[in-house]
Amino acid sequence: MSLAPPVIDFAPFHAGSSEARQRLVEEIRTACEELGFFQLRNHGIPSDLQTDILEQSRDFFRLPVEIKAGYDRDNDSFNRGYERLRAQNFEKRGHGDLKESFFLGRHLPLDDPDVQAGKFGQGPNKYPAEVTDPRRFRDTVDRYYGAVLHLAVNLMTVIAELVGLDRDALHKFCERPIATLRLLHYPPQPPDASELERGIGAHSDFGAITILLQDSTGGLQVWNRASNAWVDVVPVPGAVVVNTGNLMMRWTNDRYISNLHRVINRSGQDRYSVPFFFDGNADFLVECLDSCREPGQKAKYGPITVNDWMVGRYADTFGGEAEAAEDPVGLQ
């Protein structure tokens, strides 16, 4: 098995022979079971849109901190807006993760039924007025959100095929989902930084799948259990990184891995990335799939709604002490 996440061509999903599509399905199955990470080419997100979203992210993060702070994520309960530098500290050993971010999602009016019901992560976006071109910023993030959401549903279609999930259940899971887009900026780590310095400390993602656009800087690492080592996820031009999260692990009774990963930016330059966290419909009940249990095997996790799961994970990580990650290596 290769140490690094495989690079998979998604083109057969849209067109190609049945044999090519079956190879695609098996490649995704293997990646989800062995590492929980893969890179995806020919995924359908236009290259110019990838360039534009990274450019708009850079433009926002160049603003003075006092302007960015005016869009603070903690100003309301919608999980939207700015997260300051070192606000998170996943490993609890340094001064906080060396990154800042900006949260976006489905832009919903206050009278939307999901917002009125208080469902997690549903509400209006905060679109900054101080960027170079506010209209372009809004148009770019909204178009990118739509494109990556479409890809997420396509990927879930493949995963549904792998785990025997019927189309009706897939539709219910993907309808009006909790899905968060996050602009991330990692300043370069100083040359004399402590060995404990992290762009983001080792962690696993909360939801079903994550789709990450990263620039060419590098720094993302994933834990390879087979070799007991951190391996670099080297950026592939035009590709996105896909990984399965904790919710998918619960759903599949640990068949699909939710793996530890981290960022260490020793490049000497700023790093930008745009993760998209796809978590599913708030009311969907996630319970162990029969197809993911061996004969006589019990479910390892009890049923839980997507909303309750996400509320709990965010409370652990953002509302107080972070939940301790499974730590096979002492986070060295």
From TrEMBL:
Residues 177-280 form the Fe2OG dioxygenase domain. GO terms for biological process: small molecule biosynthetic process. SUPFAM superfamilies: Clavaminate synthase-like. Gene3D superfamilies: B-lactam Antibiotic, Isopenicillin N Synthase, Chain. Keywords: Iron, Metal-binding, Oxidoreductase. It holds the Pfam family 2OG-FeII_Oxy. The keyword Oxidoreductase applies. It comes from the Eukaryota. GO terms for molecular function: metal ion binding; oxidoreductase activity. Belongs to the iron/ascorbate-dependent oxidoreductase family. This is Oxidoreductase. It comes from Aspergillus sclerotiicarbonarius (strain CBS 121057 / IBT 28362).
